[in-house]
Design a protein that fits this description.
By secondary structure, the protein is an alpha/beta fold. A five-stranded parallel sheet has the order 8-7-9-10-11. Strands 3-4-6-5 form a four-stranded mixed sheet, with helices on both faces. The longest helix is centred in the first third of the chain and has 15 residues.
Length: 250
C-alpha cells in the first residue's frame, strides 16, 4: 500500500463513503502482516519508496506463494528474485486466480507482477560478456518493475572495445549507467572514462580460477582510478537496479 492509496482511504472516511471499520480492515496490516514463517513488510514502500521484494532462494514453494498472495491482496503487485521455472509455474496459478499476468525474466530469474506501466528517465544497463546477462537482466528487470525506462547493451567487454563506439549517444541520453562485468572487472573504469553520468558497477562471478568467484572483479572495481563509481556486491543486479531507479527518479 502506498501513500496515494492511504490518502484515498482517509479521504473516503472523511466524506463518509467508507465506514471506519472498513478503513481499519484495509489498514490493519500496516506496518506488516505476520504469516508466522514471514512478516510481510507492506509498510516498506512508504518508508523507502521501494516495496519489499521476495528473495526466493532456499524458500519453500508454498511460502513463496503465500507471501506473493499477501502482497497481491494489498497492492496488486510483487517481484520475486532468484526464481526458477517451477516457482514461475506456481505463481502463474496464483495469478490466474486474481486475473493478472506474471512476467518471467528467465535468464535473470526474476518474476514481476504489476510492473509499473509509466516509465521515467533512462537507465542504461551494459554487460561485458554474454555470460553476464543474468546479472544485467536482474538489474534491468528491477529498475523496470519500479518504473524506470531501461535500455540494455550486451557483450561489449574490454576484449573488443570497438564494440562500445556505437553506445556513446546512448550514454548522453542516460541518467545513470549500470555496468556488469566478471573476469578482471575492467569495463566500469572504461565506461567511467567515457561519460559524466553516475555509474553503478556490478562484479559478476564469471571467470576462471583466479577470478575467485567474482572477488577479482570486485577488487578491481573498488580500486578503479575513475572517481565516483558505486560498487555493488557480487552478482547483485537487484541492488544495482534499485539504486539506479532511485537516482533516476530523484
Amino acid at each position: 500500500m502506498d501513500n496515494s492509496k492511504i490518502k484515498k482511504i482517509l479521504k473516503s472516511v472523511k466524506r463518509g463513503t467508507i465506514a471506519v471499520d472498513s478503513a481499519l480492515e484495509s489498514l490493519k496490516h500496516l506496518p506488516y502482516e505476520d504469516l508466522e514463517f514471514a512478516k510481510v513488510d507492506h509498510h516498506r514502500v512508504l518508508r523507502q519508496g521501494i516495496p519489499e521484494v521476495i528473495f526466493a532462494q532456499r524458500k519453500e514453494f508454498k511460502d513463496i506463494t503465500s507471501i506473493a498472495e499477501s502482497m497481491m491482496k494489498k497492492t496488486g503487485r510483487f517481484m520475486i528474485t532468484k526464481a526458477t521455472k517451477n516457482i514461475y509455474k506456481n505463481i502463474n496459478v496464483l495469478c490466474r486466480r486474481y486475473k493478472v499476468s506474471a512476467h518471467f525474466y528467465e535468464r535473470a530469474g526474476v518474476i514481476s507482477v504489476g510492473e509499473a506501466q509509466k516509465k521515467t528517465g533512462l537507465v542504461v544497463v551494459l554487460c561485458a560478456g554474454t555470460s553476464d546477462i543474468p546479472v544485467a537482466g536482474e538489474a534491468e528487470a528491477t529498475a523496470s518493475f519500479l518504473g524506470s525506462k531501461v535500455e540494455t547493451v550486451y557483450d561489449v567487454g574490454v576484449a573488443g572495445l570497438h564494440r562500445l563506439v556505437g553506445t556513446k549517444k546512448l550514454f548522453s541520453r542516460a541518467r545513470i549507467v549500470v555496468v556488469v562485468a566478471g573476469m578482471e572487472g575492467a569495463l566500469p573504469s572504461v565506461i567511467g572514462g567515457m561519460t559524466d553520468k553516475p555509474i553503478i558497477a556490478v562484479p559478476s562471478s564469471v571467470g576462471y580460477g583466479t577470478s575467485l568467484g567474482g572477488l577479482t572483479a570486485l577488487f578491481a572495481m573498488l580500486n578503479s582510478c575513475v572517481p565516483g563509481i558505486a560498487v555493488m556486491n557480487i552478482d547483485n543486479g537487484f541492488g544495482a537496479g534499485v539504486l539506479a531507479h532511485k537516482i533516476n527518479t530523484l
